[in-house]
Amino acid sequence: MWLEPILMTIIVASTPLMLAAIGELVVERSGVLNLGIEGMMIMGAVCAFAVAMTTDNGFFGVVAGMLAGMAMAAIFGSLVLGLATNQVATGLALTLFGLGLSGVIGESYVGESRSGLPRLDIPGLSDLPVIGRVLFGQDALVYLSFAIVAGVAFFLYRTRAGLALRACGDNHDSAHSIGYPVLRIRFLAVLFGGACAGLAGAFMSLSYTPLWIKEMTAGRGWIALALVVFASWMPWRVALGAYLFGAITILQFHGQAWGLGIPAQVMTALPYLATIVVLVIISSERARARANTPLCLGKPFVAER
Amino acid sequence: MKKVFVAAAAAFALSAAAASADDPIRAGFVYVGPIGDHGWTYQHNAGRLAVEEAFGDKVETSYVEDVSEGPDAERVIRQMAEDGHDIVFTTSFGFMNPTARVAERFPDVKFEHATGYRRADNLATYDARFYEGRYIIGQIAAQMSESGILGYVASYPIPEVVSGINSYMLGAQSIDPDIEIRIIWVNSWYDPGREADAATALIDQGADVLSQHTDSPAALQVAQERGVYAFGQASDMIRFAPDRQLTAIVDDWSDYYIERVQAVMDGTWESGVVWGGLDSGMVVMAPYTNMPDEVAEMAAETEESIRSGEFHPFTGPIYNQAGEEVIGEGEVLSDEQIHSMDWYVQGIEDTLPN
Asked: What's the alpha-carbon Rg for chain A, to the nearest Å?
């Protein structure tokens, strides 16, 4: 059956995008723009691989990747929130820093290879045709990625804390005046974003291609950034967008091998074109499409005394 | 002629002496990828390390990795020249124009550009005949494939990659005229995830031997996991597929780099074109593994006949996809034709992206 392997690869290609994007969504919803996703991801990837190799335990690797992402996010948070530095410049610096540092850390791991994370295997269910392996044969991070999206959707719209976080993103002065600790909320959001990016990196180096080579994330952090805009800051649309990106990538490969004759460059550009279209819609239909845009996005908050 | 050399050497010695008595020769390297890619850039860096090893204190090397093929490249190359490097190696096709521009402004610095075609008095080019190795692995692939379908992960449709595919296919057809090939262009030299995805897609479509012209070992890893055969690219990638790598086409720049730095030291450096193959040691085949002895013997024989010049992979008759004869029986494609190849040989069911 040809459908099953295609679905399997689409899931693998989409998961790191979804993880990184859902984290950034929360960060942006709190009003902070972190352009350092790529840097946090690559640090997650290298630390996850290094720890997994040293301890021979994939789980420790995943935790290490998550912590590495959070450590990077903490640096970013201290700078943009504590010192109110420019968010765009700090984020870019974080990416460059992560790419460089990960190369140094990973130097002795180049050329090592390990087997992927263990996959779920439920006798009976995992053997069902077509959907068996797709639904019941993934590794833990795939299920975790969906749990995180569901959790974020619930948190943002169904909890008080989520409301406070959105308030910080929409109008930090009002949020401050009614007593919300804006900077602390934003810092926690930034840490969450780092944890998700670190998980995405861990997925890259432990499951997607279980090896370490420099810059192996190859720009996925930037795609995640575009995805958040594509999703117009809605959690479930992030999932949809990530799977759309993943599906287009994989299907265009199959299209090529089938000899469909659609130029590969056009297919590769499709997800980005889709993002541009969404951006155009957002900027033309202000009232409706802007409802979800965090109005304080990228603006530093300094409490007045 | 000899006199000229001596004069040049004397002039060089004088100018060197003017600066400082025993200044080491400074060699700079500009890389397109990270040295940790375990592929193309990794091998160039191995060449740089060989230069250091060979000359010790007499040479000082430096490198900049990860230089993107654009305005950035010119800045990096210019900086190397300004810094007082005696010779600068730029190791990607996309560095061609930046290198040429900088070379014009610094006539006293020697430049060496890999895989390009623009030359000047102080700008030489060098390249390796990877297609020689591709013919050998094509023969191996056709012997090892049970499904009769080969998979090829390709980067960009430039002549170097296209000639590799053609040579691979000609090698495969020499064993099995009906062999099929599926090609996926990932439009990147280096994206391990996409390379792995492409490899998976090829396997899912029935390919049971993979070849790649991208820089990371991701496809090898997929081959190992899925139980199909594959070939390493640029460096020996056997560690990523211990049971599945058949061989690898290894680039070895060490001898060339040592020779050229030596020439700068002696003051005998001259611009020129070097296109080295198996015979020059620039292209090396990794050990033939995971295959029956008779296949390995056949591969070694082909390798020997290419090395000795007895056989050329692009020997006619060769037909293009339209079935037109490109060259006739016994003729051989010229270097010029190989360097500008933009057509597929007959038997490839794929449209070349343009």
From this structure: 20
